[in-house]
Structures are given as C-alpha cells and as structure tokens.
Amino acid sequence: MKVTTLGAALACAVTTGCASIVNGTTQEVQIRTTPPGARALILPEGETIETPGEVTLRRKLAHTIQFDLEGYCPATTYLDRVTSGWINGNILLGGLIGTAVDAANGAAYRLTPDPVDVELQTAGAPSADGRCRPIGAQ
Amino acid sequence: MDLQVIRYPSAPDPAPKGIGCDIVLLREGSPTAKRCQAIGDVFVGDTGWSISCAKDRVVRDIKNEACRSGADTITVRRLSDWQSSCYQARAQLLVCNLEGSKP
Predict the structure, then answer these.
(1) How is chain A split into domains, by residue range?
(2) Could A64 and B4 be called an inter-chain contact, meaning their C-beta atoms sit closer than 8 Å?
(3) For site-directed labelling of B32, which of A54, A104, A112, B48 has its Cα 20 to 30 A away?
(4) In a 3-state reduction of DSSP, which class is residue A113?
(5) Does residue A35 have a cis peptide bond before it, meaning omega lies within 30 degrees of 0?
(6) Is the pLDDT of residue A1 over 50?
(7) Which of chain A's residues have a Cβ under 8 Å away from the Cβ of B8?
C-alpha cells in the first residue's frame, strides 16, 4: 500500500498530473428531465440521448444541452467547466508538469451541475412571432 | 483564457460583423432577452495559466466573438469558481434586431 501511495505521489509530481490519475479526462453526467422522455442534444458533440440518461463527456470542454419534447417548450441548459479540487494535488507535491498535463487534457476540471435536472414547461398558445410560450406566461 | 463558442444547429446563421461592432449587453433573463433568438453561446474559462482574464477583457472578447457570429446582443453570467481568480463566464449570443429601439 505504501508503495502504491508513493508511486502515485511520484507520478503526480513527475510523469503526469494528479487529476489525470484520480479524476480522469472524462466525466459521466446524468441528464434528467421532468417529465422524462425528452430528446437531449448535447453540444458541441452533437450526441443525442433520451432522458433520463447518462453520457460520458470530455472535461476539457463546456457543454450546452438542448431539450425537445412534444407538448413542451424547448429548453436549453449549460454544463459549465470549473476547476477540480484534484488539481491541488499537483500543488502539494510540487508537480508543475503535472499541473500542465492536467490543464491540457482537461483532467484539471469538473463539469457542473451533475446531475443535470431540467423541468420542461407545458406549451401553451404560441406567441405572435410563433415562439413557444409556456402555459400561464404573459 | 480559454474561449469556446457553441453554435446551435437549428438556429439561424446571421452574417458575421466586423470586430468592434455594436453589441448590446443585457441582463440574463431580462424581458428583452426573452424576446430574442439565441444562436449560440460562449464559454470563457481559465486555462490555469491565464493572465489577462479580468472582467473587462473577458466581456470585450465575448463581444468580439458575438460580432464574428453575427449576433447583436449578449447576456453574460459569471461562473463561480473559487479556485480561479479569473473572471469566467457563460454568455448567450442573441439576435434581437434592437436597432432603433431601446433594449
């Protein structure tokens, strides 16, 4: 066990980044809607899933998700990229190379929010310019 | 700084404008912004080595990107990231045709 810990510490400091080892360069994100069964288009990948579902996304990129479900207004939500706490492992162990590696491959980041929860609004009568208007909207 | 533009496939594709074009900055969720059409969004994040990442610089870069994308209006939301001193943001690129009317 001590050898493993030492090995990971050395790897963090010398060969690659702490976050790359612990965090990985991708993140599994759950996407849920109320009601379920919506089509979720994930950008910039262009991948489509039906909700609820899980996708593996690159941490290096920010993402936008567009939802469509018949009878409901289309919705858009964002999956933002913020700094992951694992990057601090490099600071503690003095791994400047590790920090650079983590930043370059995206392991230095985490995607938020996770899970993504979106409540779709029931479509009412469309507005004068043909846009979807939720029931109750003025 | 790491600037990423995401264009929406089903949105219109307006002609690009010159850098430094007039871009209206609206509050997110404002009634005017709700009447506009989103054509994409911009994410601005910290690379870990960013130095020129103050709010003014970030908003200027977003406006330039909006001009390139043919947008006329943006909304900007600051992203919360306690581990970075950079101003990180997500902006919506909007087409509102506000010329001649007050936003």
Answers:
(1) 2-119
(2) no
(3) A112
(4) coil
(5) yes
(6) no
(7) 43, 64, 66, 76
pLDDT digits (tens, 9 = 90+) for A28-79: 999 999 999 999 999 999 999 999 999 999 999 999 999 999 999 999 999 9
Q: Do B79 and A80 touch (CB under 8 A)?
A: yes
Contact A80 B4 (CB under 8 A): no
Q: What residue type is B100 in one-letter code? A: G
Task: Tell me how close the Cα of B18 comes to any Cα of chain A, in angstroms.
Answer: 25
The tokens 């929010």 sit on which residue? A113
Any B CB within 8 A of A75 CB? no
B46 band by pLDDT with thresholds 50, 70 and 90: confident
Cβ of residue B12 closer than 8 Å to a chain A Cβ: no
Tell me, which fold does domain A2-119 have in CATH? Immunoglobulin-like (2.60.40)
What residues contact residue A92 under an 8 Å CB cut-off, 6+ apart?
A: none
Distance CA A101, CA A71 (A): 46
Collect all residues with Cβ–Cβ distance below 8 Å to A75 and sequence separation of at least 6. Answer: A66, A67, A118, A120, A121
Query: In this predicted structure, what is the pLDDT of residue B97?
Result: 77
Does the pTM surpass 0.95? The reply is no
Task: Dump pLDDT digits (tens) for A84-93.
Answer: 766 666 666 6
With b for 16 or more beta-carbon neighbours within 10 A and e for fewer, the B67-84 pattern comes to: bebbbbbbbbbebebeeb
